[in-house]
Write a structure and sequence with these properties.
It is built from 15 helices and four strands. By secondary structure, the protein is mostly helical. It has one domain. Strands 1-4 form a two-stranded antiparallel ribbon. A two-stranded antiparallel ribbon has the order 2-3. Strand 2 and strand 3 form a beta hairpin. The longest helix is centred in the C-terminal third of the chain and has 27 residues. The radius of gyration is 20 Å and the shape is globular. The relative contact order is 0.19.
């Protein structure tokens, strides 16, 4: 039996080393994808296509920045897709009623932050597993948005400033990309250079030890849920601005893309380990693949298949990475 098991050991170690190299591997994968797609479809590098990719990346990166903080704290939020759609419908309804951009933005952010707060209370106070609790919230939001709208809330507000949130530029840079960059930088600085960031890593790595040191781990997790909710609020506003309507189905599958990007970027589902830069690379890889599927004329249903495959493979690599780091 020992003769059979010995040859498998170097292979497992090599897989662990590859998984452990993390961001370098992701960078190489991204580079290879860009080269391969551009060889078959040279329009991949056109200005219009690059801007389209950046817009798509911006929406996912905004929410993935908050989700990375949450997963580092060993929790997850599967309601972000349903919340994204609801946020857009609420923003459009308020804009249609009041014609006030400020009230529309405040309503959307308040709703999204409130959903994050409720999710946090369900997990920290009711002690419901975050996977189960946020699935329940997702189902409530998916049904609630239809009760709220009955159909898509169309644009009647005639506010160019709202349309500008998703469509305009600052110089050559789309406004959604600026939003994503600001949120990403704030989240990166928080995780990398602040005491709060170190506490989030500590809670994910060993919550019992954090509690014994006198730190309220529940408050840290509640904070991460609220931040994730507010990020969803920003993304929902931008998406409804781009579509110029609130669509009840707008966030379908969005949570899978966000979680796939976070896990692919090296953030461990068990908490305590992760990198926002890795998440950025994960977002870029997924959206480059999506864009490649479109410009190559493949069946666009593959865009839903890819995140599922990525989640399985990335989770396996995370397991191999954990075993490698433990040696």
């Amino acid at each position: 039996m020992s003769d059979i098991s010995q040859p498998a050991l170097p292979r497992r170690r090599s897989i662990g080393k590859i998984a452990g190299s993390g961001q370098i591997v992701l960078g190489l994968i991204l580079f290879a994808l860009c080269v391969a797609i551009s060889v078959v479809a040279p329009q991949f590098y056109s200005e219009a296509n690059i801007i389209a990719i950046l817009r798509q990346c911006a929406l996912v990166l905004v929410v993935a920045s908050g989700m990375t903080m949450l997963v580092i704290a060993a929790e997850v939020d599967l309601s972000v897709g349903a919340s994204l759609a609801f946020v857009g419908c609420i923003a459009m309804a308020v804009l249609n009623t009041t014609t006030s951009l400020a009230l529309g933005i405040l309503a959307a952010l308040a709703f999204a932050g409130g959903i994050g707060f409720i999710n946090g209370l369900i997990v920290t106070r009711l002690r419901v597993n975050s996977l189960i609790g946020t699935i329940g919230m997702m189902m409530m939001l998916q049904g609630g948005v239809y009760l709220f709208t009955r159909e898509a809330v169309q644009n009647h507000h005639q506010l160019p400033s709202f349309t500008a949130l998703g469509a305009d530029y600052v110089g050559p840079i789309p406004i959604p990309v600026i939003f994503a960059a600001v949120i990403f930088i704030v989240a990166y600085v928080t995780l990398r250079f602040t005491t709060l960031g170190r506490y989030l890593y500590a809670v994910g790595a060993n919550e019992k030890a954090v509690r014994m040191s006198g730190i309220r781990s529940e408050r840290l997790k509640l904070f991460a849920f609220v931040v994730t909710g507010l990020c969803v609020g920003v993304a929902g506003l931008v998406l409804s601005s781009l579509m110029n309507a609130g669509q009840p189905t707008a966030g379908r599958g969005f949570e899978l893309t966000v979680i796939a990007a976070v896990i692919l970027g090296g953030t461990s589902l068990t908490g305590g380990r992760g990198s926002l830069f890795g998440t950025l690379l994960g977002v870029l890889i997924l959206k480059v693949i999506d864009n490649g599927i479109i410009i190559l004329g493949w069946n666009q249903d593959l865009q839903m298949v890819v995140p599922g495959v990525v989640i399985v493979l990335a989770t396996y690599l995370d397991l191999m990475r954990s075993k490698h780091n433990d040696r």
